[in-house]
UniProtKB/TrEMBL annotation:
It holds the Pfam family PPR_2. The keyword Repeat applies. The keyword Cytoplasm does not apply. Keywords: Repeat. InterPro entries: PPR_P_subfamily (IPR050872), PPR_rpt (IPR002885), PROP1-like_PPR_dom (IPR033443). This is PROP1-like PPR domain-containing protein. Belongs to the PPR family. P subfamily. NCBIfam families: PPR (TIGR00756). PPR repeats lie at residues 220-254, 255-289, 290-324, 325-359, 360-394, 395-429, 535-569, 641-675. It comes from the Eukaryota. Residues 171-291 form the PROP1-like PPR domain.
Length: 707
């Protein structure tokens, strides 16, 4: 054997091999190399100079015995370094090119793309145009003798899902069936997992029905549980119950997790009778629910705010003799305290202490807050002392609740002592901590303690301006405190505790209580100040104040200032300015503001929308159609504001004549929708609008002839 081997090179060197020219290129072998004659030589391989970098020729790639990988560039991502050289080549082509023709040109350099390589490329989740890797998947399937594997189908489904194409991923079972692959439970599991993770309950149910009815796929109990959990999590309990019926038809036996998934669904829907029937079935057919199952049900009911259901589940827990742990107790105490059932929560709290459980500080906090809400501030303070005696420190939420409760019942001195205790424990107070005390000091006109507390917070390097902004926002919720708020504000200005936000809060409050004079005084102060400048929150209430005083020109100046700074006025500012312009007969400007408001505001007022409807109806030059629109507006319980009547005047004067507008106004007067005095006012507005329109035409004519 060795002699034959050694003789082969010599014999091969003298033997000629005949080739019948170039072969015709095909898809799998696009280029044929070689001449008419060639000699095959055997011997030791020629040493390769590694110092010369050469590009890899993929025509020589052998999938059974892969060659050495290509040298990697430092710019190649770390995640791609673990992939095969061919997978990196295809991914690079897909990422670089935006057209399939360019990708197809690169793919032609490969001898063949096997299914494992297709799966590897698609499994990389390429962040590219979905149409490119879709065409790559179908191009690979058209290779001669090629058949996609389950791995490549699943990788294609995940790639479509990541590209936000769930509908295309749902068509994969039909594609598999058309290509001779029968979809299995694994494909259903892949699609179920994708839709469940994305919260697409209806699409998940659709693919389940299709796989079960069209392809005869019957899931196992594990997959049934996954489907039930996804449907219930997305709020489709009825669909989940229909899937549960299919589970029983298939002869599968429920597991404990199956019962618990359905029980959570009944808890979310508030169907307590169905819940207890299910638990009874679970006891008789499988096992009793343990403490973890009961705790999960209590948490679901607590999140839905169904504390009555929590108490009924707690009774079932006690009836079954389940040993309750600290998590179940803590969930019940916190939920009952927040729901206003503090007495029952306090009983369970005492039961926890008797059993020697380590109580979480959050349980103390929720119980203290519940006691304070019910006015039992003394019991809350006693609970704080008990907490400190057990080695716990009260957190900021507990102190805030107690301080607010003490200030509510007029015990501001005890609240101040509690605040000092908080400071000694090294807890940094928040605005919710001191605002109740500051409010009491402002109400009783105790300026010394008010500013002493403010200075004490300043020593902690807290922002006094932000604190005072939050204080005024909370303090002036009561309209009767407007005068006291101004007094406190004057003292703050003297001490340098002032900001634009405080000005804005006070101006808005004064505008809401119709104290326009003081609001305009504050606006003049901030406008003449060298430190502060008005902003959008300043101009919006001031526009309403100027309109209320009849200073429409100043209100328009504020509006123009906002537009110059690219600020959008509030809906209230738009409405007040439009009404003011309508009253002085500036109908063109009012209609312009209506269009500007509806173009910039997300949800504009209905009277503005009705006004544009009326103007559009005036194009028909029919008073009867406009009157019909007005009756429809009245039927919608919308009052006919000034802007509606002004839109009638504007529309008919622009598209018809003033006589049609007078007919509509007269008709509304005859039907008692307009008083006689209001009819006279609108008739004067109509005459004034005609004069302005005529004057505008005259001026335009003079400009046209050059005069």
């Amino acid at each position: 054997m060795s002699r034959k081997t050694s003789a082969m090179p010599a014999a091969a060197g003298s033997r000629k091999y005949f080739f019948y020219g170039h072969r015709k290129p095909s898809q799998n072998r696009p280029v044929v190399r070689g001449g008419r004659f060639s000699n095959r030589k055997f011997g030791s391989p020629v040493p390769v100079d590694t110092s010369v970098r050469r590009s890899t020729d993929f025509r020589e790639w052998n999938f059974d015995c892969p060659t050495q990988p290509m040298p990697l560039s430092p710019s190649v991502p770390a995640i791609d370094r673990r992939r095969s050289p061919l997978a990196r080549y295809i991914l690079d082509s897909l990422r670089r090119h935006s057209r399939w023709s360019a990708v197809f040109y690169d793919l032609r350099k490969l001898r063949r793309v096997p299914p494992d390589l297709v799966a590897e490329v698609l499994r990389s989740r390429p962040l590219i145009d979905p149409s490119l890797f879709t065409r790559f998947f179908h191009w690979a399937g058209k290779q001669k003798g090629f058949h996609h594997t389950f791995a490549s189908y699943n990788a294609f489904a995940y790639a479509l899902n990541d590209a936000a194409r769930p509908a295309a991923a749902d068509q994969l079972p039909e594609l598999m069936h058309a290509q001779g692959k029968q979809p299995s439970e694994k494909q259903l599991e892949v699609l179920v997992r994708m839709h469940a993770d994305s919260g697409r309950g209806l699409r998940l149910f659709h693919i389940y029905r299709k796989m079960r009815g069209k392809f005869g796929v019957k899931p196992r109990i594990y997959l049934y549980n996954r489907i039930l959990d996804a449907l219930i999590a997305t709020g489709h309990l009825d669909l989940a119950l229909s899937v549960y019926d299919d589970l029983k038809v298939d002869g599968l036996k429920e597991e404990a997790i199956t019962f618990m998934i359905l029980a959570k669904g009944f808890c979310r829907a508030g169907r307590m009778n169905d819940l207890f029937q299910l638990l009874e079935r679970m006891r008789s057919e499988l096992c009793k629910p343990d403490v973890f199952a009961y705790t999960a049900l209590i948490k679901v009911l607590d999140s839905e705010g169904n504390m009555d259901g929590c108490l009924r589940v707690w009774e079932e827990l006690v009836k079954d003799g389940v040993k309750v742990d600290v998590v179940a107790y803590s969930t019940m105490v916190s939920g009952l305290s927040k729901a206003g059932k503090v007495e029952k929560g306090y009983e369970l709290f005492l039961e926890m202490k008797r059993k020697g459980f380590v109580i979480d500080p959050a349980v103390y906090g929720s119980l203290v807050e519940g006691l304070v809400v019910e006015g039992r501030v003394g019991d809350g303070c006693q609970l704080l002392n008990d907490m400190n005696n057990n080695g716990y420190r009260g957190d900021l939420c507990i102190y805030n609740s107690l301080i607010k409760g003490l200030c509510t019942i007029g015990r501001v001195h005890k609240a101040r002592k509690l605040f000092q205790l908080l400071m000694k424990e090294g807890i940094i107070p928040s605005s919710e901590t001191v605002i109740p005390m500051l409010s009491v000091y402002a109400d009783i006109n105790d300026k010394a303690n008010f500013f002493q507390l403010a200075d004490q917070l300043g020593e902690l390097k807290l922002s006094i301006s932000d604190l005072m902004t939050n204080f005024f926002s909370s303090f002036i919720t009561n309209a009767n405190r407007g005068t006291k708020a101004l007094e406190v504000f004057e003292e703050l200005k003297a001490r340098g505790y002032c900001s634009v936000s405080i000005y804005n809060i006070l101006i808005e409050c004064l505008q809401s209580i119709k104290d326009v004079k003081h609001a305009l005084d504050l606006y003049k102060e901030i406008k003449n100040s060298k430190v502060f400048q008005p902003d959008s929150h300043t101009y919006c209430p001031i526009i309403s104040c100027f309109v209320a005083e009849g200073h429409i020109r100043e209100a328009c100046s504020c509006y123009n200032m906002m537009k110059e700074n690219s600020w959008t006025p509030s809906v209230e500012a738009y409405c007040s300015l439009v009404n003011g312009l309508c009253k002085i007969g500036e109908i063109d400007a009012a209609i312009t503001l209506v269009k500007d408001c509806l173009g910039n505001v997300t949800s504009g007022p209905m009277e503005f929308k009705h006004a544009l409807t009326v103007i559009n109806t005036c194009r028909a030059k029919s008073p009867e159609k406009v009157i019909k629109i007005l009756h429809e507006i009245i039927d919608q319980n919308c009052p006919l504001e000034d802007i509606i009547y002004c839109s009638i005047i504007y529309g008919f004067c622009k598209y018809a004549s003033s006589e049609e507008a007078r007919k509509v106004l007269a008709e509304m007067r005859d039907k008692k929708f307009l008083e006689e005095s209001e009819f006279i006012i609108y008739e004067e507005l109509l005459n004034g609008h005609l004069k302005k329109a005529t004057a505008a035409l005259v001026i335009s004519g003079l400009k046209f002839v050059g005069l």
